[in-house]
Design a protein that fits this description.
Length: 223
């Protein structure tokens, strides 16, 4: 529900750009500053009731957009009409209102948006790009936009020694598991599961020669 001047086409578009309330925890939303006073700053995310922050809690570093296009200095106060970014901590707190903290768009914002992309890839069963970093116990570390994911040996197509040849390469991965609380991510080589591959090999051996060959190493990688 809107408030304090957040009306008209801008407000309608603003609401459409934010997702449904049930899916917001751990995600970033944008909110419009609709009131600035000595008591605090009121922002409207276009979902449920507006949120109020103390004057020292919101600054220019939290502003993602400003009418006219000129962003404020990081330590400058926010102004009416500014669009700030908020990380949702609880969709509904003890008093029934959403709980959120301001996001420093010049630093933390990019990391949070990357995390949203990882979560979306897992939810929608889409591929995501990452770089193979280094071997670890029972697998490899994979870098995805500042986050470190785990690639288990069982979800890689070849031995660890051969996979080491691809360190630093950008590769498409399936996102297998995501932990929102710990920010742990498990990925797999696109379409590869060693257990399924072993079963396929067993069927091929039973069928005799002439069966289809497996995909070559690097088929999921990009230059």
């Amino acid at each position: 529900r809107g408030c304090c001047g957040a009306a008209g086409p801008f407000a309608e578009a603003f609401r459409e750009s934010n997702t449904s309330a049930e899916q917001l925890k751990g995600h970033v939303v944008r909110a419009r500053v609709v009131e600035v006073s000595r008591k605090g700053v009121l922002v409207d995310p276009g979902l449920r009731a507006p949120l109020r922050f103390l004057p020292h809690e919101l600054h220019g570093r939290h502003v993602a957009a400003r009418p006219g296009g000129q962003l404020p200095f990081p330590a400058a106060p926010v102004a009416l009409g500014d669009v700030v970014e908020l990380a949702v901590q609880e969709v509904e707190g003890p008093d029934g209102e959403m709980m959120a903290r301001p996001v420093d768009v010049r630093h933390n914002g990019a990391d949070l948006l990357v995390w949203e992309a990882i979560v979306a890839a897992h939810r929608d069963k889409q591929r995501i790009k990452g770089r193979i970093l280094n071997p670890v116990n029972r697998g490899f570390s994979v870098g995805i936009g500042g986050y470190v994911a785990f690639l288990p040996d069982s979800r890689a197509p070849v031995s660890k020694a051969r996979l080491t040849q691809l360190i630093g390469k950008l590769v498409n991965f399936d996102v297998l598991r995501v932990n929102e609380e710990t920010k742990n991510v498990v990925v797999g080589w696109v379409g590869w599961d060693r257990r399924k591959a072993h079963r396929a090999d067993a069927r091929k051996e039973a069928a005799g020669p002439g069966g289809p060959s497996s995909a070559p190493l690097g088929s999921g990688s990009e230059a």
